[in-house]
Structures are given as C-alpha cells and as structure tokens.
C-alpha cells in the first residue's frame, strides 16, 4: 500500500480536488472525517459529476460528487483476499484502514498488478537459474 494518501474534506470544492489530483499526480482523493475514510473522489467522478453536467467546479463539493459507498480493506489483508476484494467491489482503488478504522494508506489495482508482475518476474528468474544449460 501507499501511505502518502491525498485526502480532503467533504466541503472541498471540486476545482480544488482536480488541482490536488493534478499536482500530486493521482487519480483519486480520499475524503476523510476525523481521520477515517468516508468517501472517494476519482477523476472519473469529476468528469461525470462536474464537467459532463456543466456544473461550476467552485460550487460543487466533494460531498456532491464522491462515492460514499466506500470499499476499504484492512492493513493486514493478504494478496489473494485483496484480489477478491477488488473483483467483488468492482473498483480500481481502495483505502486501507488500521484496526481502529483510521486511514492507513491506499492500494490501487495498478499497484497490485505491478507487485504481482514483479513477483512473477522474480519467480521466473529463480526457476531459470535452476535450469541446467543445454
């Protein structure tokens, strides 16, 4: 997981959310309240909830466009369970929470893909090193 999560409050203007995503080079902002994730705003949420509706990004807030049926995972989740969670939730990003429900990080489908690809590459190298030369 990544621990450097970009966060905002529910009253953050949509324009400010977009600027945060641009400046931090991320595709989402986790909306928190008292350190706990309560929603997420993605670049797609901004495109559909602000741009496509010709809404004013200075009057639309995170509360207006965020996904509030948030899927989160515990920080001690295993890779196989994480894969199942991503498939079941049909999302690309999930906040990670600690035992108290506080935001601990975020994991993306891309992060998981890179991890699994790296592991597969390392495994292939180990197998290849054990193959005798012909």
TrEMBL record:
User: So which domain of life are we looking at?
Assistant: Archaea
Domain CBS stretches? 1-57, 66-123
- SUPFAM superfamilies for the chain: CBS-domain pair (SSF54631)
Q: Which InterPro entries match?
A: CBS_dom (IPR000644), CBS_dom_sf (IPR046342), Diverse_CBS-Domain (IPR051257)
Listed A to Z, the keywords are: CBS domain
Which Pfam family, giving just one, matches this sequence? CBS
Q: Which SMART domains match?
A: CBS
* Gene3D superfamilies documented for this protein: CBS-domain (3.10.580.10)
Q: What name does this protein carry?
A: CBS domain-containing protein
Native organism: Halobaculum halobium
Q: What is the lineage of its organism?
A: Archaea, Methanobacteriati, Methanobacteriota, Stenosarchaea group, Halobacteria
